[in-house]
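Hello Y.,

Per our agreement to keep a running log of every chain we model this quarter, I'm adding this entry. I've kept the format consistent with earlier entries: sequence first, then predicted structure.
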Amino acid sequence: MSAPETRLLRGSCHCGNISFDLGWPSALADIPARACTCTFCMKHGGLWTSNPASTLTIRFLDRSRVSEYAFGTKTAVFHVCGKCGVVPVVTSDIEGKTHAVVSVNALNDVDPASLKRAPISFDGEGVGDRLARRQRNWISDVRFD
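Predicted structure for the entry above:
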């Protein structure tokens, strides 16, 4: 069985210190954009996407200018550019494997009409359920370059 066809989507923070290449399944014309209702995402306008069939390569030009912020259950790390303040990617290490979501606001050259925005709340979700959901739905082929 061959791997599904993908199209390359590129994204970055505002200054380009954090960038990523997202291999998105070509068969998916629309990109789900989940508006998380947690306090951090609400304050930053967090709008996230992922697909378990995607691939993700993350690059840091100056790693010393990237902050890692974790709150609440501390099971997700928001990678914050210390130069421009943008959060283009979130990672979660689960059972020795990195999973990730990317900010649709950080995508370059994507038709806004292809973004299918919807609010989502994880209130009341236990840590075990949260990690299982991420394993199912987040990008699991994640590399740091």
